[in-house]
Specification:
This protein has 313 residues and is α/β, with parallel strands linked by helices. 36% of the residues lie in helices and 15% in strands. Strand 6, helix 7 and strand 7 form a beta-alpha-beta unit. Helix 5 crosses helix 7. The protein starts with a strand and ends with a helix.
Length: 313
């Protein structure tokens, strides 16, 4: 039995030759897509008519795309978030959607705490000053003096809580789902409503899925609850933050700064006002980067694909 499989996951593509012999031995004909960050609906449509499977990143597998792929049996997502896939339409069409839960907990948690440390200790700005010939000693704070608010206390959020507690931070959490009592007791986490968390935190870090309830969760009204001395960190999904509202808050000095690994449109458009703010740290959706994590996800993504294809033989 042989299958045609579209490979469009940006992290998988550079390693594709390493896995090609195994995939071909399993009967896979690889259809390689050229992709910078993700494929749009229009870019996917001409690629899917004759594929049986897909290894994708955050490509827009809309219902229109899925209905244009009559042979498609499985979408194996490289990573955790499947918000770019119309899972309801896939289920109706008998297309299996797989992902790799808990894939990047440690790298993303490390990145979130790294941004908090950068802001607290002013590390990027001191480096810039010295390189420009300045010798300025800015005010800084120890994390033990600060409160961290964690929005979304799932696997990554809990890893962030543990890291923050190791630094002696007071940590607040909010989540629509119950958090295990044993974890709360272990870490001293204080669960509060979102509004209270935003009002009381020196740093707010986002670790929630993108869904209808979290779209623009941090909008203008929510950002107005934060202290003007507070910082926002987003390593979850770009649309959780209303970027226009965030830009206004930064421009008006109603927020001390932000760190964004993800954006509403990726790659970040050249005309984005976020590029103008020196107190806004920007990254190319790379918080999940880690050699060991990447290797595990490669293996799991391929295993999910092959298992699903074999099930429909």
């Amino acid at each position: 039995m042989s299958w045609r499989v579209l490979v469009s996951a940006p992290y998988m593509l550079p390693a594709l030759e390493e896995f090609r012999p195994r995939l071909e031995q399993a009967g896979i004909e690889i259809v390689r897509a050229e992709v910078r960050e993700r494929l749009s609906e229009e870019e996917l449509l001409p690629l899917v008519a004759e594929i049986d499977g897909a290894i994708c990143g955050d490509d827009q597998f809309t219902e229109r795309v899925l209905r244009s792929a009559p042979r498609l049996k499985v979408i194996s997502k490289w990573g955790t978030g499947i918000d770019s896939i119309d899972s309801g339409a896939a289920a109706r069409l008998g297309i299996r959607v797989c992902n790799t839960p808990d894939a990047f907990t440690d790298p993303v948690a490390d990145t979130a705490l790294g941004y908090v440390l950068c802001f607290a200790r002013r590390l990027p700005w001191m480096d810039g000053d010295v390189r420009r010939g300045l010798w300025v000693k800015p005010d800084a704070v120890a994390l033990r003096e600060c409160t961290l608010g964690v929005v979304g206390v799932g696997n990554i959020g809990r890893a962030v809580v543990r890291r923050a507690r190791a630094f002696g931070m007071r940590v607040l959490g909010t989540d629509p789902l119950p958090v295990p009592a044993a974890f709360v007791e272990e870490t001293g986490l204080n669960m509060v409503p979102l509004g209270a968390l935003l009002a009381e935190s020196d740093f707010v870090t986002l670790h929630c899925d993108l869904n209808p309830t979290s779209l623009h969760l941090l909008d203008g009204a929510a950002l107005s609850l934060m202290r003007p001395t507070a910082y926002l960190v987003n390593t979850s999904r770009g649309p959780v933050v209303d970027e226009a509202a965030l830009s206004r808050a930064l421009a008006e000095g109603r927020l001390a700064g932000a760190a964004l690994d993800v954006f509403e449109v990726e790659p970040l458009p050249g005309e984005s006002p976020l590029r103008a703010f020196e107190n806004c740290l920007l990254a190319p959706h790379n918080a999940n980067c880690g050699r060991a994590a990447r290797a595990r996800v490669h293996e799991t993504t391929i295993a999910n694909l092959l298992a699903a294809l074999r099930e429909v033989v």
